Amino acid sequence: MGLRERKKERTRTALIDAALELFLSKGYEATTVDQIAARVDVSPRTFFRYFASKEEIPLSLAAEQHEHLLAELRGRPDGEPPFTALLEAMESMLGTLRGLDDTEAARFLQTQELIHGTPALVSAYLRLISDNERMLVAEVARRQGTEPGELHPRFVVSLFTGLGLMCFGRDPEDVAVITQRFDQLRALAEGSLRPGWDMPARPSAEEAEPVR
Amino acid sequence: MGLRERKKERTRTALIDAALELFLSKGYEATTVDQIAARVDVSPRTFFRYFASKEEIPLSLAAEQHEHLLAELRGRPDGEPPFTALLEAMESMLGTLRGLDDTEAARFLQTQELIHGTPALVSAYLRLISDNERMLVAEVARRQGTEPGELHPRFVVSLFTGLGLMCFGRDPEDVAVITQRFDQLRALAEGSLRPGWDMPARPSAEEAEPVR
DNA sequence: TAATTTATGTCACTCGATGACAGATGACAA
DNA sequence: TTGTCATCTGTCATCGAGTGACATAAATTA
Question: What integer is the mean pLDDT of B13-24?
Answer without folding.
Answer: 98
